Amino acid sequence: MMQHCLASLPTFSTLPLHCTCRQVVDVDDFINGIKRAFELLGYRVYEVSLKDKSSDDELLSQLSLIDTAQLKLALSVNALAVELINKLPQLATIPFYTYLVDHPIHLLPRFYGTKAKLLCVDKEHVTFLSQLGIQAQFWPHAVCDTELSAEYVPFSQKKGILFPASFTDESAHFAEINKVAPNIAAKLTDANVRSISDVLRMLGFMQSGISPSVQLNDQIVTFLRRCDLYLRGRDRNTLIKECHQAGLALTIVGSNWDKTHQYDSHCYLPAVPFTELKNLISNSRFVLHHSPGFEQGQHERVVYPLARGTSVLSSATRYLFESYGSDNGVAFYNSMAELKQISVSVSEGHYSSWINNANSIIERNETWRSRIAML
């Protein structure tokens, strides 16, 4: 589905629109939280929902039913309908934001050359877009305040480590990368190359005073997307393998795991609706977080568990450590031995303290209401 909404103070309105490259239900949850946050701040919110293949004319038809003269701002997700800025004069006179829930390289053709203001979940995404001359702002993932009001599952009833992630065939991606650029493929085997941002830096992007060695044409953008997917799959699959070798059992939930080797120590579940996934999160003692290359930002797999009373296991990144520090819900590890020790040794008292501290941080800094205040 594609959606957008409008919100207003007694005489002002906001229009959010959205579409996604991840499961629609995730984004529905995001948009509902953003809508509620606008309403809590006194705005009237309008939402327009269309099917993925709906035409601009169909969207314009729905917009014609709204008093666009009252609009305060427009907000879309994943660069949906940004081309309407040039087709609807009323939208050209208000801020038009679009929230990118993944790396901009995956959606570049949608927004390149438009006047949309881009909201990014990672500071490195902002740096990349700034070099392209595109206006962007850091806007990390958040949660609706209602997530904080849910009753926590007692520690004694929480079981296991949940790993929500789909399977990515790293070998297939690597083979294609190696065909096109074997020199880059060789560098991707280095574990210190952690994200697409590292690849972009290899090519001269995101570095002050250095001009990129390639132009962002369709072929390069496709190549970079494949590099991103390869790195995500490589590290995700390595983490699962290392947990198996360490005797650390995971409950893995996501699509396509039937297409790869499944380790005996892990339990594999198919992809589930987001509401069901949230229940799995609440009933798990830990959520194991693998960052999809968001080294200077955060993923919803961090904020949702914390809001629902479940601790997160994560390798340390500067942004997450600065945001949560020690004993505040996110347990950072540097090795498999440390990961296993944390997961088996935490006491109920210590765990409860973590979650209470995390709850305070989320309520203060990580809700959609606090994000809207940044606009």
From TrEMBL:
InterPro entries: YkvP/CgeB_Glyco_trans-like. Residues 239-342 form the Spore protein YkvP/CgeB glycosyl transferase-like domain. This is Spore protein YkvP/CgeB glycosyl transferase-like domain-containing protein. It comes from Rheinheimera pacifica.
